[in-house]
């Protein structure tokens, strides 16, 4: 069982193996020492990277997801006897694997958050019939773009970590598929899944746990940032505003994954009102307990919600798929009420932060930057001279399997917010770059 989980599909059999470290610990070291991991500090989470020292970036978000996921994984190992049986490679929860998956789950996000992803996908699809998607880009980075001493491409991660990151086990190029894996990497992922005898469309328990801990972080940490920024105002006027409630309801109804929450079974608007009212009431109670100190109240609110969600994560049978499911659990069954509550808090963060008009103005600027960078690089004859030489060298070595449009998308998507703005300023604004700058 260990051999199949610790197999490295990209690594040469002759590679030296350290006897002192577990294979998953080696994966952890490769991830946190990678340039892609470091660049997450310059990529937007909700607010643009550089908006202030307080607000989260993709880096701090990923570390927080990893911390939650590792703690839950350790608890589940202790409390679920069937995990000790190790009956199937996909029905195991190793805390280090879950931590690695959490650290790497946002590697594929381009600069400027969801807006950057949206713009790159639109351009690629419209002009070249290709897709861009952050989860798929994760695997392109981990299995192809990242460089490691002794490897031709990628970080040569173990099968367990690769499948632990694969929360959407589908070929992205399939008709109507919004999330998945690019065809070039899907061949390897599909073969690993076949060797593991994974049921079609099912993720490993480690991938499911990482995904839910990501949701926990979104629904708690992003709201903390929103309160700190004044975008979420902790008073009745804000929480009872009809427009806010309507926008949250519309986000729920327009979500392509809404079927997972059984919204048709309840009055959505009524539940949104109740969750928001309860949230405000809890804030007022903790605010009094914290001697009316807002910063302490924010942290305490966040900590209590993280604990309330994380402590309820457990493993259930999934009879529909003949598999196991990581879920929020109450009395031996999935707690749909708590799951919907978490989704409402996620939508609250979305409509108050992402949909804020000032954020949207900045996103429009981000859209223009990405589009103009694309226009500058997509003509190959011109682009070859203004893209860094090490990137061009990589392209020349692999041009048989690396189309120019995909190469340009890879280059832009690897940029931090600040670097994208720097290059844009050199090309189109008043800033004059220096020939001595190192890109």
From TrEMBL:
Annotated HD domain residues: 58-219
Residue stretches spanning the membrane: none
Keywords in alphabetical order: Hydrolase
Tree of life domain: Bacteria
InterPro entries in UniProt: dGTPase, dGTPase-like, HD/PDEase_dom, HD_domain, PHydrolase_assoc_dom
Protein's UniProt name: DNTP triphosphohydrolase
Species assigned in the record: Paenibacillus planticolens
Gene behind this protein: dgt
């Amino acid at each position: 069982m260990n051999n199949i989980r610790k197999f490295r599909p990209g690594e040469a059999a002759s590679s030296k193996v350290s006897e002192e470290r577990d294979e998953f610990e080696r994966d952890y070291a490769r991830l946190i020492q990678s340039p892609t991991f470091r660049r997450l500090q310059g990529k937007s989470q909700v607010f643009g990277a550089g908006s202030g020292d307080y607000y989260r970036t993709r880096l701090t978000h990923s570390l927080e997801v990893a911390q939650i996921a590792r703690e839950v994984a350790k608890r589940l190992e202790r409390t679920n006897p069937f995990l000790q049986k190790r009956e199937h490679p996909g029905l195991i929860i190793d805390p280090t694997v879950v931590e690695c998956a959490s650290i790497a789950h946002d590697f594929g996000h381009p600069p400027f958050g969801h807006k950057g992803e949206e713009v790159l996908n639109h351009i690629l699809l419209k002009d070249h019939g290709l897709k861009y998607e952050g989860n798929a880009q994760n695997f392109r980075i981990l299995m192809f773009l990242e460089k490691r001493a002794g490897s031709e491409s990628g970080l040569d991660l173990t099968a367990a970590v690769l499948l632990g990151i694969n929360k959407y086990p589908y070929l992205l190029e399939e008709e109507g598929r919004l999330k998945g894996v690019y065809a070039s990497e899907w061949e390897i992922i599909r073969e690993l899944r076949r060797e593991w005898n994974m049921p079609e469309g099912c993720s490993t328990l480690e991938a499911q746990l990482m995904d839910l801990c990501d949701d926990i972080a979104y629904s708690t940490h992003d709201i903390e940032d929103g309160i700190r920024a004044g975008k979420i105002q902790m008073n009745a006027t804000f929480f009872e505003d009809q427009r806010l409630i309507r926008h949250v309801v519309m986000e729920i109804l327009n979500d392509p994954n809404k079927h997972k929450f059984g919204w048709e079974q309840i009055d959505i608007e009524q539940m949104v009102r109740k969750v928001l009212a309860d949230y405000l009431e809890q804030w007022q109670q903790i605010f009094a307990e914290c001697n009316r100190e807002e910063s302490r109240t924010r942290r305490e609110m966040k900590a209590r919600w993280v604990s309330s969600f994380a402590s309820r994560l457990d493993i259930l049978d999934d009879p529909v798929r003949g598999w196991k499911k990581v879920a929020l659990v109450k009395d031996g069954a999935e707690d749909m009420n708590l799951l919907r509550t978490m989704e409402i808090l996620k939508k609250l963060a979305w409509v108050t932060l992402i949909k804020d008009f000032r954020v949207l103005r900045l996103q429009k600027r981000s859209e223009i930057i990405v589009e103009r960078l694309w226009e500058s690089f997509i003509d190959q004859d011109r682009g070859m001279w203004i893209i860094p030489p090490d990137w061009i060298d990589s392209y020349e070595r692999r041009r048989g399997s690396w189309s120019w449009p995909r190469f340009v998308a890879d280059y832009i998507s690897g940029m931090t917010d600040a670097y994208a703005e720097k290059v844009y300023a050199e090309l189109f604004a008043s800033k004059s770059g220096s020939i001595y700058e190192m890109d």
